[in-house]
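Hello,

Our lab assistant flagged a job as stuck in the queue for most of the afternoon. It eventually completed. Since we weren't sure the result was trustworthy after the delay, we are filing this so someone can double-check. Below is the sequence as submitted and the structure that was eventually returned. Let us know if re-running is recommended.
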Amino acid sequence: MPRPVIDYKKCDNCKVCVEVCPMGVYAVEKGKVVVKNPEKCVGCRSCEVQCHASAIKVIE
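-- returned structure --
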């Protein structure tokens, strides 16, 4: 099962992952991007590819 992980040392909260994820895995809580629904991740890696800060990795 794929599992998305955010490296908060790299993340600048641009919210691209929230916008590009077709499954609604990410959300913004208190101004910070979080992995809200990791069980919905299908491993498409859209978030990983679109993250300009390289802050997201999808671990299989």
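-- support follow-up --
The delay was a queue issue, not a problem with the job. The result is valid. The domain at 3-59 is CATH 3.30.70.20 (Alpha-Beta Plaits). The CA atoms of residues 13 and 30 lie 11 Å apart.
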